[in-house]
Write a sequence for this structure.
């Protein structure tokens, strides 16, 4: 599923236009990025957690020349799936609706 397909699914689920759903998704993504940039974790209940991790500096290779190059340390986003998401995609067989455990009031 790509961004446009996700926006269409959100629009259908909420009964709003695809344009409105796209704005909602953009706001969510921007909020997550802003929080991560500020060094904050983003916990979404049983869905999962976004966090920022530091990747250590390392030696790499220039693929064209084969020369060794130094790659500096950098920060990158990570996502850890929560229990409800794992159950929804894990095929535990409890329900015919794979998204049931992700909805509030399950």
């Amino acid at each position: 599923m790509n961004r446009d397909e996700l926006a269409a699914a959100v629009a259908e689920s909420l009964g709003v236009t695809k344009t409105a759903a796209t704005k909602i998704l953009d706001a969510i993504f921007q909020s997550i990025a802003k929080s991560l940039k500020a060094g904050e974790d983003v916990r979404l209940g049983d869905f999962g957690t976004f966090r920022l991790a530091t990747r250590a500096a390392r030696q790499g290779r220039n693929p064209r020349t084969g020369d060794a190059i130094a790659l500096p340390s950098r920060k990158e986003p990570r996502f850890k799936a929560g229990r409800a998401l794992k159950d929804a995609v894990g095929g535990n067989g409890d329900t015919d609706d794979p998204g049931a455990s992700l909805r509030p009031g399950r």
Q: What stands out?
A: The chain has a mean pLDDT of 89.
